[in-house]
Specification:
heterotrimer, A mainly alpha (266), B alpha+beta (352), C mainly alpha (272), A: MetI-like fold, globular, B: 352 residues, alpha+beta, Rossmann fold, OB fold (Dihydrolipoamide Acetyltransferase, E2P), five-stranded antiparallel beta sheet, 24% helix, elongated
């Protein structure tokens, strides 16, 4: 402990926390503003911006697309990550370390590099500015998260439970469905939630491959604030934050945020 | 002559280039018998159990149960029951659903399932706990539920993998007795694995003592204890003092003690004798036991009911166990030890 | 059987990750006309002082952001690692939860806070401390501030992980052996925290140099980093070979930094 008195220490920590949460809090406050331009403090308190946002067809479409894409990405990432995790949690075969590394490698590549690559791959096959291309890219970047959370859950299962089921008459598949899956459920839920969230919030890849057709919520906000900064966008942002927070709470409940977000120390 | 109910022949399990975990183990079991696989950790006893269950594939050897070669059968078709050290109950199912798991897998209709599950729960004294969740049961209760799960399917063979190791001492004795009782009453053939010799001696019909992948001796508890076949078995079960010497024409000569008088006849040549600690006594004044040795007390360990004393006799250290009665000896005291002719065991020479 | 379970995942990774990277390499080596592989774009870039300045800008920005972010993250990490409050879990979540909101939204928040009529300027003017608004947005300063905040949770996570081995017993033992508070800090806490701090620096640095959204929105057109340049070339100028080349160079920088870090970390863990 440094020689600072406790009170000063606490104020410092509180200040840093405030700094950390400042943009989110400010956006929240702004969303209730009545002025049509970017200024502080807000002139009044009203839900006018929210009404405007919810009535805006473009924003509604973007929000709907984001949710849909997120859901598809989550399902695909789970569908792909769960079988892979089953294999990766049982070590002892040749190539285990390499395969494990391969599945986690998207975490090591900056999204902007991948974005350019995806752009170049999609263009010649005409999938640029398409939701399929976006979904493909998002699944690739969320697979590591799903594998991590699912592996975490699978690793915590007592092997003897699966063996007991088998000895007492359950086939391999029945054991997987009636024993392994229920016991690994927290990891699956958390994995799906994280995949959804990463896709929901993702802006870089979307920016590169979207043109006139694809529109997601972060994309809509980005395009808007490049040229305008009225409170309407604050309301939209708050909805985005709200969605994220709800999913986050679900993850925290089920597995704990920290274990899910820690990046692998290289 | 009918085939034994369970016959394991020449079981071998090798992992890569390491020495085999199971090295040509063979044993048989009659219907309704309980066999204990006893040995220190790493001796291969659990591997054998898991090979019988099908969880591990033998490198070679055969296993027959009820006249059928089971090695061709997958795990879930062997009709066996298994009790694990960690209980292995499913936390997302109720106690009744756990116990009825095997019946559900066999497609038994719900009404009959419920009836048989309740009967099994009553058998293990958990009759009123069917609706509870696993986490609401204590360790001992969970293990009883696990036993019920195995018994309710009326398995051809019941396997128990160190079922008492996770329980505390008092619970262990109680449950051990209950397991033995249940096994007898239902007439279930069973094999259990343990590293605890008192468990094996108390609960099993026969014991297979194992070391480094090999079965050193199989026999009834009294046989194992009174007539150990190897030095390892003698040391692992019961322990005692080993005296090495030379025998000639029926008389064994131990350096530092002299000729030993005994009823057993040692073969000529190098010989190892065993003195069980509870068969040696401090000679009371006026007594004249068949064998006598004088020495100095080295250490005394008092555990309330008993006293364990180490006495140095020449180059030997003799362990004497007895009940704590009267004046205790102290380290440094002179001591006269005595034992009768029937109190000496000859350890057979190892066959090449 | 194993292969069957891995196949879907491998397929997605192959198409969505490996292929794009390979294609990136290929396009970066594409000549201006015709087919074949040429390193001419690389030569052009590496020979152009503009790109060296760009690289310098990017690396400098990355370094500044990393240092400040870690400086702020260490006290928080220390606090969270040692606090016994029952709110500990909540506080940890609070510190890293911002990671799961979109960068766009957080950057927008900073635009509101730092702009000429934003929170900071309005407050300072109202308090009479300044006469004219401070230029905190649409420039490098604003970018740095925003990036520091946005990347700080990663730093906090790393520091917290590193301090995971710290227990009250460590400090108590040191104190019992006669160490005063400063000594406890430098001899006990700091060495244990060092690996976590280094990881934090590395993590924030590599994330900062590949940043795009925040420099673009907060920079007001005055902040040029690799990220913004890549975006321009890929979507505006449509000079794909150039965009690919720049992306590959960024990836190379990534790889170099991570390898250096790996060596450093290995060296450190061998030291007493």
């Amino acid at each position: 402990m440094t020689s600072l008195p406790r009170a000063a220490w606490r104020i410092l920590i509180a200040g840093i926390y405030l700094f950390l949460l400042a943009p989110l809090l400010v956006v929240l406050v702004m969303s209730f503003d009545t002025k049509p331009y970017l200024a502080f403090p807000p002139a009044g308190v009203s839900l006018a911006s929210y009404a405007a946002v919810l009535a805006n067809a473009d924003f509604a479409q973007a929000a709907g697309a984001s949710v849909l894409v997120g859901a598809v990405v989550a399902l695909l990432a789970l569908g792909v990550g769960v079988p892979a995790s089953l294999v990766l949690t049982r070590p002892g075969w040749r190539g285990h370390a390499a395969t494990s590394g391969l599945f986690l490698s998207p975490l090591l590549v900056p999204h902007i590099v991948l974005a350019v690559g995806i752009l170049l791959v999609l263009a010649p096959i005409g999938l640029l500015d398409s939701y399929s291309g976006l979904i493909l890219a998002h699944v690739a970047i969320t697979i590591p998260y799903v594998i991590r959370t699912v592996s975490l859950s699978l690793g915590g299962i007592d092997r003897a439970c699966e063996e007991a089921a088998r000895v007492h008459g359950a086939s391999a598949f029945t054991t997987f469905a009636r024993v392994t899956l229920p016991l690994a459920a927290p990891g699956l839920i958390a994995g799906g939630a994280i995949a959804f969230l990463v896709s929901f919030d993702e802006a870089v890849i979307a920016l590169f491959i979207a043109n006139s057709h694809v529109n997601t919520l972060p994309l809509a906000i980005f395009r808007y604030i490049e040229f305008r900064t009225d409170p309407q966008i604050a309301a939209l942002s708050v909805l985005l934050i709200l969605g994220s927070v709800l999913v986050m709470l679900a993850i925290e409940r089920v597995l704990g945020l920290r274990r899910v977000l820690e990046r692998p120390a290289k | 002559m009918t085939d034994p109910y369970v016959a394991a022949r020449d079981l071998v399990k090798r992992y890569g280039t390491l020495p085999p975990a199971v090295d040509h183990a063979s044993f048989t079991l009659e219907r309704g018998e309980m066999l204990a696989l006893l040995g220190p950790s790493g001796c291969g006893k659990t591997t054998i159990l898991r090979m019988i269950a099908g969880l591990v594939t033998p490198t070679s050897g055969s296993i027959r149960v009820a006249g059928q070669d089971v090695s061709a059968l997958p795990v879930h078709r062997r009709n066996m029951g298994m009790v694990f050290q960690s209980y292995a109950l499913l936390p997302h199912l109720s106690v009744a659903d756990n116990v009825g798991f095997g019946l559900a897998m066999r497609g038994i209709p719900r009404a009959e399932r419920r009836r048989r599950v309740q009967a099994a729960l009553d058998l293990v004294k958990l009759g009123d706990k069917g609706g509870r969740r696993i986490t609401q049961l204590s360790g001992g209760q969970q293990q009883r539920a696990a036993i019920a799960r195995s018994l309710v399917i009326e398995p051809s063979l019941l396997l128990l993998d160190e079922p008492l190791s996770n329980l505390d001492a008092t619970l262990r004795d109680e449950l051990r007795g209950e397991i033995r009782d249940l096994q007898r009453r239902t007439g279930t053939t069973a094999i259990f694995v343990t590293h605890d010799q008192s468990e094996a001696l108390a609960a099993a019909d026969r014991i297979a003592v194992m070391s480094a992948g090999r079965i050193e001796q199989i026999g009834a508890p009294t046989d194992i204890f009174e007539r150990p076949a190897t030095r390892f078995v003698a040391g692992f079960i019961g322990g005692g003092t080993f005296l090495d010497g030379v025998a000639h024409e029926g008389i064994a000569e131990i350096p530092g003690i002299g000729p030993i008088r005994m009823t057993a006849v040692p073969p000529d040549g190098a010989v190892t004798l065993l003195l069980r600690p509870h068969r040696v006594e401090f000679v009371a004044p006026g007594a004249m036991p068949a064998n006598v040795a004088d020495g100095i007390v080295e250490s005394v360990v008092y555990t309330g009911e008993r006293v364990s004393t180490q006495v140095r006799v020449g180059e030997h250290r003799v362990t004497v166990n007895g009940f704590a009665r009267g004046q205790q000896k102290l380290p440094g005291d002179a001591a006269r030890l005595g034992w009768g002719e029937d109190d000496v065991v000859v350890i057979p020479r190892p066959t090449a | 059987m194993r292969l069957a379970l891995l196949l879907p995942g491998l397929a997605f990774l192959a198409v969505g990750f490996v292929l794009p990277l390979l294609w990136l390499l290929r396009i970066s080596l594409a000549p201006q006309t015709g087919d074949g592989l040429e390193a001419q774009t690389y030569a052009a870039v590496l020979g152009d002082p503009f790109y060296w300045r760009l690289a310098g800008n990017t690396l400098l920005l990355g370094a500044i952001v990393a240092v400040i972010a870690v400086l702020l993250a260490v006290p928080v990490g220390l606090f969270l690692a040692r606090t016994t409050s029952r709110w500990r879990g909540v506080l940890v979540s609070l510190a890293i939860a911002p990671l799961l909101t979109s960068t766009v939204v957080r950057t927008y928040g900073w635009m509101v806070i730092l702009s000429d009529r934003g929170l900071v300027n309005v407050t300072l003017r109202a308090a009479g401390l300044i006469a004219r608004p401070l230029p905190l947005a649409n420039n490098l300063t604003g970018s740095v501030i925003a990036m520091v905040e946005i990347l700080m949770p990663y730093a906090i996570l790393s520091v917290l992980s590193g301090l995971g081995r710290l227990q009250p017993a460590h400090e108590e033992a040191a104190a019992l052996h006669g160490a005063n508070r400063l000594r406890v800090f430098t001899r006990v806490i700091l060495p244990l925290a060092l690996p976590g701090i280094l990881t934090a620096l590395l993590l924030v640095f590599v994330l900062a140099i590949s940043s795009f959204i925040t420099p673009r929105l907060m920079g007001g057109g005055r902040v040029f980093v690799f990220g913004t340049e890549i975006y321009n070339e890929a979507t505006v100028t449509l000079n794909w070979p150039l965009a690919a080349t720049l992306a590959m160079l960024l990836l190379a920088a990534f790889a170099i930094v991570i390898t250096l870090y790996g060596r450093l970390a290995a060296h450190l863990s061998n030291a007493p």
